[in-house]
Amino acid sequence: MTNTHHEPLMRIVKRSESTFKHKVIIRLIAVLLALVIDAMFIYFVTGLNPFAVYTTMFQGTFSNPMRFSWAMRDLASLLLVGIALAPAFKMRFWNIGAEGQVLVGALATAAVMVYYGGKLPNALLYPTMLIAALAAGALWGFVPGVFKAKFGTNETLFTLMMNYVAIQLVACCVNIWRGQASGLGKLNMKSKAGWFPQVFGQRYNINLIVVVLLVVLMYCYLRYTKQGYEISVVGESENTARYAGINVGKVIIRTMILSGALCGLTGFLIVGGRDQTISTGTAGGNGFTAIIVAWLAKFNTFYMALISFLLIFLEKGAGEIASAYNLNDFASDIIAGIILFCILGSEFFINYKPIFRSSKQTSIGKEVA
Amino acid sequence: MDTLIAWILRAIPFGTIIMYGALGEIVTEKTGNLNLGVPGIMYLGGFAGFASAYLYENSVAAPNMFLCVILSLVCAFIASMIGGLIYSFLTITLRANQNVTGLALTTFGMGVANFFGVFILDGRTATQSLVYKTFQTKIPVLSQLGTIGQTVFGYGFMVYAAIILAIVLHHILSHTRIGLNLRAIGENPATADAAGISVTRYKYLATCLGAGISGLGGLYYVLDYNQGIWATTGQIEALGWLALALVIFTTWKPLNAIWGSYLFGTLYWLYQFLPTLMGFSVPGYITDLIQMVPYLVTIAVLIVTSLRKKREDQPPASLGLAYFREER
Amino acid sequence: MEYAIELRHITKTFGSVVANHDVSLDVRKGEILSLLGENGSGKTTLMNMIAGIYYPDSGEIIVDGKLVEIRSPKDAYALGIGMVHQHFKLIDVFTAAENIALVLDKQEKYNLKDIKAKAQQICERYSFDIDLEQKVYEMSVSQKQTLEIIKMLYRGAQLLILDEPTAVLTPQETEKLFAVMRNMRADGKSIIIITHKLHEVLSISDRVAILRKGEYAGTIDTAAADEASLTELMVGKKVELNIEREAPVNPHLRLNVHNLTITNAEGIKVLDQVSFEAFSGEILGIAGISGNGQKELLEAIAGLQHPEKDSSIVYYPDDDRDSTAEQLIGKSPKNIRDMGIHLSFVPEDRLGMGLVGSMGMIDNMMLKTYSEGHSPLVDRKGPRYLAEEIKDELGVVTPSISTPVSRLSGGNVQKVLVGREIAAAPSVLMTAYAVRGLDINTSYTIYHLLNEQKKSGVAIIYVGEDLDVLIDLCDRILILCGGKCNGIVDARKTNKEEVGLLMTRLAGKQEGGVA
After folding, report:
1. Which domain CATH number covers B221?
2. Between chains, do A157 and B245 touch, taking CB under 8 Å as contact?
3. Which end of chain C has fewer CB atoms < 10 Å from its terminal CB, N or C?
4. Inter-chain touch C102–B180, beta carbons under 8 Å
């Protein structure tokens, strides 16, 4: 419905179509704008030359192969959660609970390592860890999924609360396992039972291999499978889904089990491949950051990889600045925040366009016949 | 008995922190904006309040504590409102997704507070502003009146301010034209628009003022609850999420926030006082489980309200949705 | 003669569509004027310009003899103009009094008690029956409408515009509304009522103004009018639709619906013991004022509703033998499809139910068939071929078959939807308002498609709103009113008056007498 009380100077209309080139240009402008704001922030707060700071930032990821490897390790953790969230978000299910789902996955993995490490042969231990992690994550996704499907309980708030239940569970178990020690330390330090084997020199390289596989698999799952198609339909309109004969509740529950299980898998990989221990900070905020990643990438896993890389690059860069200029690495949160604000704001110019009074004529009849 | 008093003396200040957070968020959500940036906003408020007081104390030979209190309150409110303004601009004017913007704001607010906090710490692990003594000043005479005086009147002024604020907000939302318009926008912005109410202006106003109120929770945490000590901890973040939980618990009614927040405070400190009260000691890991209770209670409330489907207890109907007049 | 409002040469266009062209119209003080016209004749657009929703491209509006500009609903209120829209502008969780307070003048003090007292006075004056403390979500449609009218009167409306107020009312409620309208007239208010029901026009109004295809076709005194003369003014000349209709060939019983009763979430019986039979090779029309159970009827057959016990929908595959019959109640759409029954359904809400707006034609083609076969992957080859075919055969205008269908125009969206449903080789084809909002050419394309399906032995159930079309296209017409079946008539023998009367009378009752 057009509302034309006396033609305002400027009005906003929905763009009917937006070319790929247009989208790329707008996003590039957004990132550039963010970098300029960040540069101003750096200059005014610290008086440092922003260009020198940006160079240092670059070194955070690229100064040597080790740095790059670490960046990839952290990228894997973030991207894995993003991939896990993709099906839920595509279904318009606001799963804010990835943090908790990762944590319970990690907890289940750690529990198997603690109680079965050394008792089971490795060939059995790994699958047991994996299954426990998948099951725990799946359960954490299943519970809010069921309530959403059956009673329409608000999933955003439900999953958010589940995070804290998970955190307290982890705190409880860590408390038990550490005994009189001040911290938990690495699990199975001597036997290394449940630790991932080293591949190309690092245990966490397994995580990288898994994440590369999952990027492709999840892309195909959403795009080429019947279940992926069902997720798209449910996400667009539950009414249409019912009309098409899709059991909406079933799809919601199934997808949340999948999403939760993949978060659990992430927990498994983090404990087995990266940390070999667990704490309430194991998920490290990735559960929240990944939501932004998944949303901005419009659930395309390849774009997710790109955005994850950008965020990790910033984080590493900020860490580098911190040590080089004696600042602190919270700067990365500010820089990332500003970049996210700019990208989020830029979406507006992809979906809408402002129309000024004089150029009104051009807007009419642009829609497809 | 002493344990019970100690428990109450802990629970009420704790509840006050999240009451501010929740009251601000109720105002915001009443116009249909779900701001998940509350933790970040509380960080902003807490830091701005602390920094202004600390810098003032250290730059003036004989700081006036009354002035210092006012200064910190104003700075906390403004800093938090700026956080709300960023959120408003992105979600209302640019129609960005509310959840994602809120999460980004949380990241940003935490970053700002902790980044600048490090400058103030200047290498130390913690630093203290002396204005906390003023914040903690109890009500004279009344607080001396035995147990009741201690538990009812034995807190800093912000505890009472929060209660008054809740009552005032209840009055505004339920009995004034502004409140009616706010609620109308949260329920059905198109109808409010047709009635000649400026949806955009109200949304901005409610979100920014709401953020300001939430930010006071951060201020109270640092300058009263935490005895004026600034340290880079993640505590405020957890409190922010708890404030969001409290909003659900109150079913979007400010008056419920008063007892709800104290209940949350009581539940939060359950792990420390209940065992003593019952006369047995529990291992540390059990206390971790007991700390889960506030969240479980919130989940239960969420489920029960969705089961009962009572219209008055539901979230504002347009919560989380951007309003675009031409999209009807 | 004193006029409440005069419109002079009003023109309004939307893009290339002319909604109103050079319309001049006046309303006298203290009269009820009916604004009559077919669907899409520009009645609502014209009234929206008086109410401040739209601003005219050209022309003048004169209120009480003064030239005025109405830029917003607020301006309209200030001039004493209030409009009750078809979609009520009420807040569900507010009480009636709070909803009234929402449109309060800025100068007036906000005090719910005073507001209630003043509203109560209005209620007593015009004998409105409403509880001001009641929440809107607890109200019936008729109560909501009453509240809207009170809201406008409270705001000082001297000229009241009612947009199809009777479309959602029972005959008794309509009579009540008319009584109130007469009270208001006696009190000196002017009322414009938009409607296309002729008997109501004759019973309530003093004069009738007629719009035809966006243009003013004249005003006549009701006393000098009858249904025939009004129809002629409204449609211009007698409409010859020229829709082909052949006699059903070798009809078999296909569906036997018996005692179908559905209670909705609010506990209202939206369908009440409806029974009928549908035959292959026949078009069964469903007539009725919209919202009288048509939607639920089709959805029940499609497996999307939960009918009450004792309801029965039996499907007969090839002939009327009971041995091969299948009961459809309790089956989901997928169950029905798995039984090998091809039910095609073109729902009223095309983009909200029939199609996925964000998907292209290809993905929409497989909405009901994607799950076929054992592979976990979807097959897009067949749908792509089908999309190409429909695009060519029905002349769908789209940049590409992967362009999201929400970007297509209404007519093209409908072609995609109808095309897909027919391509499924149905044995039963149900359509709800299949030509709503479509231009003449597209409408005829759709009629032609339906007739082809009829020839090939499909049982067609056609829910329509245009009686001319129903009478010319269908073989039999079932009339729904208040969820009840008011009769099934032979379309070849009936006439508009008969169907029209059945649409507005509750079954088993005589026409509601004037209260």
Report:
1. 1.10.3470
2. yes
3. N
4. yes
